[in-house]
From TrEMBL:
<dbReference type="Pfam" id="PF01105">
    <property type="entry name" value="EMP24_GP25L"/>
</dbReference>
<protein>
    <recommendedName>
        <fullName>GOLD domain-containing protein</fullName>
    </recommendedName>
</protein>
<dbReference type="GO" id="GO:0016020">
    <property type="term" value="C:membrane"/>
</dbReference>
<keyword id="KW-0812">Transmembrane</keyword>
<dbReference type="InterPro" id="IPR009038">
    <property type="entry name" value="GOLD_dom"/>
</dbReference>
<comment type="similarity">
    <text>Belongs to the EMP24/GP25L family.</text>
</comment>
<keyword id="KW-0732">Signal</keyword>
<feature type="domain" description="GOLD">
    <location>
        <begin position="1"/>
        <end position="119"/>
    </location>
</feature>
<feature type="transmembrane region" description="Helical">
    <location>
        <begin position="175"/>
        <end position="195"/>
    </location>
</feature>
<dbReference type="InterPro" id="IPR015720">
    <property type="entry name" value="Emp24-like"/>
</dbReference>
<keyword id="KW-1133">Transmembrane helix</keyword>
<keyword id="KW-0472">Membrane</keyword>
Amino acid sequence: MDLHKDTILIGRYKMEITTDATNAGDSYTSYSYHTPLDKKEIGVVIDVEEVFDNNHRVVRQRGFAVGQFSFNTLDSGQHRICLTPKSFLRQAWFRNNVDSYIVKDSKFAMARIGIELAIGDTTLLDSKRSRDVQTIKEQVYGLNNKLSLIRREQLFIREKEAHFRDLSERTCETVVNWVMIQLGAMVILFIYQAIRISKIFEKRKID
């Protein structure tokens, strides 16, 4: 595949296997294919090589039976993309209560892989990332504004609570003062009445 520099290649693939073939030369279309039960341990090895640079390998990774891969081209030229079906199950795992169907899948006779490739410019990707970053910044800015508004409302509520508390304290203090004044007036009036009555009784005794 001929790719230009600064190109991003995205490949989506699906691997299917058959355990029915007994002759590698038989036509694979005559067998029943299915996706492996264990899509993690029965998958593919993904290789991307730069043919123009003596088949220099730029990507080698393990992939699931169904998945995708991507890479950015560093130079323009012919690239080779290879997906090799492979079982990653170890022989020792077969003794650890592994499902017999998974073991059977791991010994598949043939495999076929369907793949879809999408090619894009990394500058477009960077532009999209920049827009995403800008969107995130705007969202953060909006959240900060909302947070500032909430803080102002909390401050306003605290000020109202403090004002109400001061008003309540002053009201209570005023009520207590008036009660004390009234009690003092009643005590003075009581003493005055007592003295007056006492003088009246003394005057009657003298007469």
